[in-house]
Design brief:
Helix content: over 70%
Strand content: under 5%
Number of domains: 1
Largest sheet: none
InterPro entries: LeuE-type (IPR001123)
Membrane topology: Multi-pass membrane protein
Shape: globular
Main location: membrane
Distance between the termini: 39 Å
Number of strands: 0
Structural class: mainly alpha
GO molecular function: amino acid transmembrane transporter activity
Radius of gyration: 18 Å
Order of helices and strands: HHHHHHHHH
Organism: Gordonia crocea
C-alpha cells in the first residue's frame, strides 16, 4: 500500500462518518444558527483540532487503551457524558432566561471565537467513540516505512479536510437561515432543541459506559 492509496482509502471511510448526522454537526449548526459565521467556523476548527489529536494518538497506539482498558473507556465516557449534559442544561437555562427579551431584537450571545473553538475541541476529545473509530481504522492504513505518528496525522488531516468541507455547508446554510429568521424566539427554539439533543447524547453515552 502506498501513501496515496492509503489516504484515498481512508477518505472513503471518513466521508461516511463525516456526513452522518451526529454531535459535531449539531454543535456547528447550532453555532451558525444562533451566533456568527466566525464563531461557527471556530467551533468547526476546534472539532478538527480534536480530530488531529485522536489521529496522532491512534498512530502511536495510545487509543488502544480505550479498547484494552474497560475502566479507561468508562471514565472517558462518563466525563464526556457529564460535559454534554452540562452543555445541554446550560442551553436550556439560557433559553429560559431569554424569554423576557423582545422579539424585535434577538439577544447577542456571550463568548468569542476561543469559546467556540474550546467547545468544539472538548466535545471531540471527550467522545470515546471517535477514539475507537480511529483505533479500528487507522492501523489498517499504515504504510511500511512511514512513522506511525506521521501516518496517523496525515490520515487525520484527510478527515479534517472532509470535515471542514462539510462544516462549511452547515455554516453557510445555518447562517442563511438565521438571516431569514432574526428573532429571539427562534434563538430560544434552537437552544432548546440543541440542549435536548446534547442531553440525549450525554445520557446515551453514560448508559453505554455502564
Amino acid at each position: 500500500m502506498t501513501v496515496a492509496s492509503a489516504l484515498v482509502g481512508f477518505a472513503a471511510v471518513a466521508v461516511l462518518l463525516t456526513i452522518v448526522p451526529g454531535l459535531d454537526s449539531a454543535l456547528i449548526l447550532r453555532s451558525a444558527l444562533t451566533r456568527s459565521k466566525t464563531y461557527a467556523f471556530s467551533t468547526a476548527l476546534g472539532i478538527q483540532a480534536g480530530t488531529l489529536v485522536w489521529g496522532a494518538a491512534a498512530g502511536v497506539g495510545a487509543t488502544a487503551v480505550l479498547a484494552t482498558s474497560e475502566t479507561a473507556y468508562r471514565i472517558l465516557s462518563l466525563l464526556g457524558a457529564c460535559y454534554l449534559v452540562w452543555m445541554g442544561v446550560s442551553l436550556l437555562v439560557s433559553s429560559v432566561r431569554r424569554h423576557t427579551v423582545t422579539e424585535q431584537k434577538p439577544p447577542v450571545p456571550k463568548g468569542g471565537v476561543w469559546r467556540g473553538a474550546s467547545a468544539g475541541l472538548l466535545t471531540n476529545l471527550l467522545n470515546p467513540k471517535v477514539g475507537v473509530f480511529y483505533l479500528a481504522t487507522i492501523p489498517q492504513f499504515m504504510v511500511s516505512g512511514i512513522p506511525p505518528l506521521v501516518m496517523g496525522v496525515l490520515l487525520a488531516l484527510v478527515h479534517c479536510a472532509l470535515g471542514m468541507v462539510w462544516s462549511t455547508f452547515l455554516v453557510l446554510g445555518g447562517s442563511a437561515l438565521r438571516a431569514r429568521l432574526r428573532s429571539a424566539s427562534f434563538v430560544r427554539w434552537v437552544d432548546r432543541v440543541t440542549g435536548g439533543v446534547l442531553i440525549a447524547f450525554g445520557a446515551r453515552l453514560a448508559l453505554n459506559a455502564r
